[in-house]
Amino acid sequence: MNTQKKQNSFFRSTSARMLMIGLLILTLLIPLTYVRSLINERASRQQSVVHEINEKWGEEVMLYGPILRVPYKTYEEKIVLDKEGKESKREQKVILEYAYFFPEKIENEVRLDSDFLHRNNFETVVYTADMNVSGQFNIPDFKPKGIKDEDILWEKANILIRTSNLKGIKDELSLQMGTSNYSFQPIFSGNRNNNFGLILDTLESSTIGISDLPVDKPIDFSFVLKYKGSERLSFIPIGRTTEVKIGSDWHSPSFSGTYLPDDKTKVIDENGFKAEWKILQVNRPFSQQAFKRLPNLDGYAFGVDLIMPIDEYQKSERSAKYGYLVIALTFLVFFLIQTMSKIYIHPFQYLMIGLALLMFYTLLISISEHSTFLKAYLIAASAVVVLITTYSKTILGKLKFPLLICASLSSLYTFIYVIIQLENYALLVGSIGLFGILAIVMFASRKIDWSHD
Hints:
With 453 residues, this protein is α+β, with helices and mostly antiparallel strands.
């Protein structure tokens, strides 16, 4: 009989309750891990759907050009041997090579209009880009390579434009060069951009007339491009002076690449953004001309990403990271109430409270797929707070303890929501908040007699 009393006394002791609560918290981490896996699964599904939507609408755009391509002759001497292996004669073989010349200046004014596309519960941002490109070609200089004037095939010169997302081009491309207009046709190249993972294709113009070429004087050019694209728009600064101006209705741009826009001209507000770049030849490590083949310039791209603000799954994932904290602090509140009021709470009741806390995340995910994150968070948090408060009333009896639990849970969910919304100050606010919670717990537990356990 005394042994039975000692066993009952131990299981109701403070040490046993603390051990039991610790084991329950560790047990509840298992379903919490599955909840986080569910969030990641839904986020992966969203990315898959977004990629499929973007692929059909138009993928990200990278553009550089126009590039003046002029063929020229080079000569290779070949020795012909006779039957005895002696030199019998020399033959001169003509090899056709290409020289590539970049513009003296490029000015590109871009209007970027964003839009949202939906499929089921998923959403992505796409854009329509209207580009007005103009500039000038200077007289090409073949002297550094020792190429004679008679070996330059001006009559076969043409213009190249390299770009990704050919299917996103909305209208026929026509280049005005000098006094004439020239059409383009695509030439698949398949060169992969190591920095962005893009495949850039080449658009090649028809042969440029001699009078429209910069043979003895600079020649102006201009063209208009209309794109349907998504995620990113970028350029490569091949002009001796490259100026790009972008105006858009998108309110949360991310400027990416090697060059950032001028801070003095950059404007970002709720109505959209404006940005301007001016890049000089001295700002990049390549010259205005290339012989035999074009160099890989993809690593010098710059532009803008139309990023979605933190989406529902990212917020849900960040919220779930605090699941351990929510469970531990909620159990701590019940433990302190139990210890100070001498009310016995059964382990099964702790388990039910823990499962109710886990239901918050499944409610949050499912509701946020059909509504805004704020509404989903309010509904899920309110449901869980009401459920646990009502349940605690049947356990604790007195009204003041359930009200304390209601206030504690409401404050905790509000605190976590604030942290989720913050990015730059999340760590600072979280650290201060946790310090405050620790101080409150230490103050509340200062009068507990820990000697009778």
